[in-house]
């Protein structure tokens, strides 16, 4: 059985091309009567193209009693041979194999964009062992190994730069067209390309845990065979086999002409019906890939076409997910905003808090100079930091810290803090020598493309919803900027699950878009889960149906429209294939079609379905 399965698995594109080429010459020799053998030359086509079809049909019947199109094709081949129509049998086998080749080419083209990721996987790594450098297979790198990456090389594993500076092309992971400067302490991902300087790094994620391998696992799980509508087509194919056999038997009884019955079996093969769905799904997956999406399951696009709501997590989805300073306000007449910021950044330079890192990290861009190293530094848990900068004591933290350590906050500063807090910002107060000096407001900034994407989603007839664990003020402020009416704030993971469950009970299918670990249950529960693949956590990526590799949500409306158009194409394919079968069986029963012409008519329908589906590869709404 294993040998037989291996033979059947050999039916790839190369095998199809070889068999079709030999079969074409054999059929030509049959027409011209040039066969050097006692048998008709058409038997070459029967053996090369027909036997694999018959073997697959037999295996399906014996192992699972699975009645598919191959069963009817096998019966048609056998019947043609029995009545002496060797050329018709050879032509049926040839055209069936030609249809299979066209399908394989369509699917291969659809998946070509995804499979490029596999070729990006680095094969080797330069490992430093003492003073020696050894080149080893990338999969043998261990966590903690120190590696060297030269200019032009692909980063073999995920890790942290320990020595050197460089620029990294991260397009494969983030979609960014420009290289990103990296230095000591920065993270680098496998599959990205080192463009300029060499550097040394410490491996932190290796083997199957590498970033590029995560993406490849998404690629390998893209499978059109899971779509519910594919199973529906298979059920129809089973009934069509029964109807075709009954129609052939009835025609034989009424007319007494076996050739008409054989023609019915040939033209009624449900190949176009079976090809209608998977070719459309795979072409749509190829289209989605070109726009930055990795589709894990074929039925994900089918389910996406049903949704009436799209729920967004706030942080990392319509926003960047990293705090940025949006306001600096000084309340001392002799201290400028840049001067205040410089003191705060120097005080936060050694802080491990994300807000402190955000302040210190933006100092050069905002003030034109790097933060100075503090002479003294003390972390005050739950309050902030205390530091000595240029001989002055600097406090940076929340209101409680200043009330404990400094004078009463001025009314102007309190009013400014209330205003920025109402916009969803986090406020850091700053004091110099125990006197209130001003404040910094930090906020998670909105992606510039988010508002337009939400507007286009609404225009597509889908309601956007903000479903977030953030506080009400922050959620309402971001929702106002996006013109989102429905907001669910302060949500725990179970709250998000409950909301999606209530929508589904009300008959509304929901698409969840998120990025964090707390989004994973909602991504799994939703009708379709879409994860921000570049910034999303491992758990969120594993839970989602679709990954947005570039984190560019401006393509979300296209994905919604593509899923709906894909279902339209599938319905057209099914309607056409059913109509063609019904029309052809009437012509066959009346003797208008013989087996040879019937095979041409039938397989023309399969070719039409494949070509019609292939147009999905480049489809975009509004583009001809």
List the helices and strands and how they pair.
Blueprint: H1 2-9, H2 13-32, H3 43-64, H4 69-82, H5 86-119, E1 124-129, E2 132-137, E3 146-149, E4 158-163, E5 166-169, H6 171-174, E6 180-182, E7 187-188, E8 193-194, E9 199-205, H7 211-220, H8 228-255, H9 258-267, H10 271-290, E10 293-295, H11 298-304, E11 309-312, E12 319-330, H12 337-347, H13 354-361, H14 363-367, E13 376-380, E14 384-389, E15 392-397, H15 399-405, H16 411-422, E16 426-432, E17 435-446, H17 450-459, E18 463-467, H18 472-482, E19 486-488, H19 493-505, E20 510-514, H20 520-525, E21 528-532, H21 538-543, E22 546-548, H22 556-589, H23 595-614
Parallel strand pairs: 11-18, 11-20, 18-19, 20-21, 21-22
Antiparallel strand pairs: 1-2, 1-3, 3-9, 4-7, 4-9, 5-6, 5-8, 10-22, 12-17, 13-14, 14-15, 15-16, 16-17
Helix pairs in contact: 2-3, 2-5, 3-4, 3-5, 4-5, 4-9, 5-7, 5-10, 5-23, 8-9, 8-10, 9-22, 9-23, 10-11, 10-22, 10-23, 11-22, 12-13, 22-23
Tell me about this structure:
The structure is a single chain. By secondary structure, the protein is of the alpha+beta class. The strands form four sheets. Strands 10-22-21-20-11-18-19 form a seven-stranded mixed sheet, with helices on both faces. The protein has a six-stranded antiparallel sheet with strand order 2-1-3-9-4-7, with no helix packed on it. Strands 12-17-16-15-14-13 form a six-stranded antiparallel sheet, with helices on both faces. Helix 21 (538-543) links the parallel strand 21 and strand 22 (546-548). It is elongated and about 110 Å long. Mean pLDDT is 79; it is low at 1-11 and 222-226.
């Amino acid at each position: 059985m294993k040998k037989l399965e291996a033979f059947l698995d050999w039916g790839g594109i190369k095998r199809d091309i070889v068999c079709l080429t030999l079969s074409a010459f054999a059929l030509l020799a049959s027409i011209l009567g040039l066969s050097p053998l006692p048998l008709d030359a058409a038997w070459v086509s029967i053996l090369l193209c027909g036997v694999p079809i018959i073997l697959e049909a037999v295996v399906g019947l014996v192992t699972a009693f699975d009645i598919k199109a191959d069963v009817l094709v096998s019966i048609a081949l056998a019947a043609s041979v029995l009545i002496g129509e060797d050329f018709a049998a050879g032509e049926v086998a040839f055209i069936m194999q030609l249809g299979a080749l066209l399908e394989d080419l369509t699917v291969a083209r659809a998946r070509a964009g995804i499979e490029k990721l596999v070729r990006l996987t680095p094969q080797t790594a330069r490992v430093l062992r003492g003073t020696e450098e050894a080149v080893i297979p990338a999969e043998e790198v261990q966590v903690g190994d120190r590696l060297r990456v030269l200019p032009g090389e692909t980063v073999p594993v995920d890790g942290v730069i320990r020595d050197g500076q460089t620029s990294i092309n991260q397009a494969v992971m983030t979609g960014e067209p420009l290289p990103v400067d990296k230095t000591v302490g920065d993270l680098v991902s496998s599959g990205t390309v080192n463009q300029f300087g060499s550097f040394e790094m410490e491996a932190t994620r290796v083997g199957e845990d590498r970033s590029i391998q995560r993406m490849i696992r998404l690629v390998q799980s893209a499978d059109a065979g899971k779509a519910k509508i594919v199973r529906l087509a298979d059920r129809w194919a089973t009934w069509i086999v029964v109807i075709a056999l009954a129609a052939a038997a009835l025609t034989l009884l009424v007319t007494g002409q076996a050739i008409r019955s054989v023609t019915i079996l040939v033209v009624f093969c449900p190949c176009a019906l079976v090809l209608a769905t998977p070719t459309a799904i795979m072409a749509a997956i190829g289209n989605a890939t070109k726009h930055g999406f990795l589709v894990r399951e074929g039925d994900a696009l089918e389910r996406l076409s049903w949704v009436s709501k799209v729920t967004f997590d706030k942080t990392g989805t319509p926003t960047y997910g990293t705090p940025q300073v949006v306001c600096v306000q000084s309340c001392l007449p002799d201290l400028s905003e840049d001067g205040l910021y410089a003191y705060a950044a120097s005080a936060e330079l050694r802080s491990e808090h994300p807000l402190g890192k955000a302040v210190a990290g933006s100092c050069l861009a905002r003030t034109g100079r790097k933060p100075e190293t503090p002479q003294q530094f003390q972390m005050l848990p739950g309050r902030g930091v205390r530091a000595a900068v240029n001989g002055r004591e600097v406090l940076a933290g929340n209101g409680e810290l200043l009330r404990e350590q400094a004078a009463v906050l001025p009314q102007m500063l309190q009013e400014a803090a209330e205003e920025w807090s109402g916009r969803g910002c986090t406020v850091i107060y700053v004091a110099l020598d125990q006197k209130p000096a001003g404040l910094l407001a930090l906020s998670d900034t909105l992606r510039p493309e988010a508002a337009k994407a939400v507007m286009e989603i609404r225009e597509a007839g889908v309601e956007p919803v903000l479903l977030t664990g953030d506080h009400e003020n922050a959620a309402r402020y971001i929702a106002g900027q996006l013109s989102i009416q429905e907001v669910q704030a302060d949500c725990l993971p179970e709250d998000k699950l409950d909301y999606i469950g209530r929508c589904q009970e009300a008959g509304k299918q929901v698409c969840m878009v998120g990025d964090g670990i707390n989004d994973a249950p909602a991504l799994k529960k939703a009708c379709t889960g879409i994860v921000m693949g570049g910034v999303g956590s491992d758990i969120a990526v594993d839970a989602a149906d679709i990954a947005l590799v570039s984190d560019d949500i401006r393509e979300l409306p296209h994905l919604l429209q593509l899923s709906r158009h894909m279902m339209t194409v599938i319905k057209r394919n099914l309607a056409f294939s059913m109509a063609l079968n019904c029309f052809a069986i009437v012509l066959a029963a009346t003797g208008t079609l013989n087996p040879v012409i019937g095979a041409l008519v039938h397989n023309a329908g399969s070719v039409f379905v494949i070509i019609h589906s292939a147009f999905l590869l480049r489809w975009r709404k509004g583009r001809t």
